[in-house]
Design brief:
- By secondary structure, the chain is an alpha/beta fold.
- The protein contains eight helices and seven strands, in the order E-H-E-H-E-E-E-H-E-H-E-H-H-H-H.
- It starts with 5 loop residues before the first strand and ends with a helix.
- The strands form two sheets. It has a five-stranded parallel beta sheet with strand order 2-1-3-6-7, sandwiched between helices. It has a two-stranded antiparallel sheet with strand order 4-5.
- The protein folds into two domains: 117 residues, 3-Layer(aba) Sandwich (Rossmann fold), CATH 3.40.50.2300; 55 residues, no CATH class.
- Helix 2 runs parallel beside helix 3, helix 6 packs across helix 7 and helix 7 packs across helix 8.
Length: 183
């Protein structure tokens, strides 16, 4: 973590808990962290519009709202934000878990939250290009390296698929050449 003050947004429908976490940050971690509390998606959006956050800790169940949807909304509004899931109900599907950078079960301590958030912030996350490349190649392999079947599944033309696969192969080959030259 750099010397700059980091910002965390706690999103929980339990306003008492969200405010307690915010106060704990202010009292115990105020020199290196600042915090805000939101009680649902509308409140989280208002905070994200007014301030920049490095981390958001989102409850899975926010009353009638879905924490996964709130996390996706925050990620679209705040590129580079690290999003954690904090919930007593840790029955999370793989797709839901993929939305989050770290998981924390309730009850928890602020030390655990800060440690997991800091660890997640220090990890190198894949870029959109990395994810897209992996997605296209996985579909290509799943379809037995058949370009037409891959194009149908991606919903793009065969020619566009061939162009995309060609560029992915070139990127891979350049990476291999670079790795060999470093040996």
């Amino acid at each position: 973590m750099s010397g700059a003050c980091k910002a965390i947004l706690f999103v929980d429908d339990d306003s008492g808990l969200a405010n307690a976490w915010r106060r704990t940050i202010e009292i115990s971690w105020g020199a290196v962290w600042r915090a805000a509390a939101a009680y649902g998606s509308r409140d989280a959006v208002e905070h994200a519009t007014r301030s920049r956050f490095d981390v958001a800790l989102v409850d899975l169940v926010l009353g009638d709202e879905d924490g996964v949807e709130v996390a996706a909304l925050l990620r679209s509004m705040c590129p580079g934000i690290v999003i954690g899931l904090c919930s007593a109900a840790m029955d999370v599907t793989g797709d839901e878990a993929a939305t989050f950078d770290f998981l924390v079960g309730k009850p928890t301590t602020m030390d655990v939250i800060i440690r997991r958030a800091t660890d997640a912030m220090s990890r190198e996350r894949p870029t959109l290009a990395d994810v897209t490349r992996a997605h296209v190649l996985a579909i290509f392999e799943r379809n037995g390296r058949n370009v037409s079947a891959t194009a149908r599944e991606l919903g793009i033309s065969r020619q566009a698929t061939q162009t995309r696969l060609r560029s992915l192969r070139q990127i891979t080959q350049v990476g291999r050449r670079s790795a060999r030259s470093q040996l």
